Amino acid sequence: MEKRLLLDKLSASAEERVLLGRLWDALERCRSRNIPEESGFLSPHEQALAGQLMQALGVQEGWALWGGYQGAQRRQMHFLPDWAQGPEAGAIRALRCRFYETDHPTHRDFLGSLMGLGLTREKIGDILVSPQWADVLVGSSVADFLLQEWSQAGRVHLRLSEIGPEEIAVPEQPAKLLRDTVASLRLDSVLAAGFSLSRSVAADLIRSGKVEVNWMSCEKPDAPVQQGDVLTARGLGKCLVESVGGQSRKGRTGITMKRFL
């Protein structure tokens, strides 16, 4: 399919089209010059779009998503030349920002101060806030700039140092475990169980475009859901289909959901 037509088919907005076009260009540069290429940090939704592009192009190897540690939410897309086994060491660096325990800077404080320094969102990976520090993942060139220039988040003074990937501290995200039974593994039924909604309210949310399955919009209430799927609903949050059990005597399927708080 012609490049323009494929980008139009895969993207739902001008911003998505520009992103996919840049990723496609990076892939072509990597292949023609046999050098590594990387994107900025992508959101989970953008990563899903990138995966769809690679699938449409039939590219199964030679690329990887990496955010600096296993389980990272925001990740860069790395295009690999034939001599590379994976992303370059040091492509993503971790900075530890220490502060006094009596201070309580939030994720928003850190992100706001970084963007106040002129950084765009794609330059910043995960921001992992703990009681006495925050670990921030950034690209290699950005790390050197921040070590020199970044000293405050909101009104909180920061003491920065670089740490190794093995030192990154990932806070446990609070979650509530829910067990329920559903008539079928339809999206509206499972969403209703995960967020304690009626099935009709869940179906309305889905039809209005407020629900994503694995970070991609889904407007079909009867779309199938399976174990491992991540469901997000605008204004309600995120839940994970942790497990799917057997059927009861009444033919209902047992599910376990993890709702993140």
UniProtKB/TrEMBL annotation:
<dbReference type="GO" id="GO:0003723">
    <property type="term" value="F:RNA binding"/>
</dbReference>
<dbReference type="Pfam" id="PF17774">
    <property type="entry name" value="YlmH_RBD"/>
</dbReference>
<feature type="domain" description="RNA-binding S4">
    <location>
        <begin position="185"/>
        <end position="242"/>
    </location>
</feature>
<protein>
    <submittedName>
        <fullName>Putative RNA-binding protein YlmH</fullName>
    </submittedName>
</protein>
<dbReference type="InterPro" id="IPR036986">
    <property type="entry name" value="S4_RNA-bd_sf"/>
</dbReference>
<dbReference type="InterPro" id="IPR040591">
    <property type="entry name" value="RqcP2_RBD"/>
</dbReference>
<dbReference type="InterPro" id="IPR012677">
    <property type="entry name" value="Nucleotide-bd_a/b_plait_sf"/>
</dbReference>
<keyword id="KW-0694">RNA-binding</keyword>
<dbReference type="Pfam" id="PF01479">
    <property type="entry name" value="S4"/>
</dbReference>
<dbReference type="InterPro" id="IPR002942">
    <property type="entry name" value="S4_RNA-bd"/>
</dbReference>
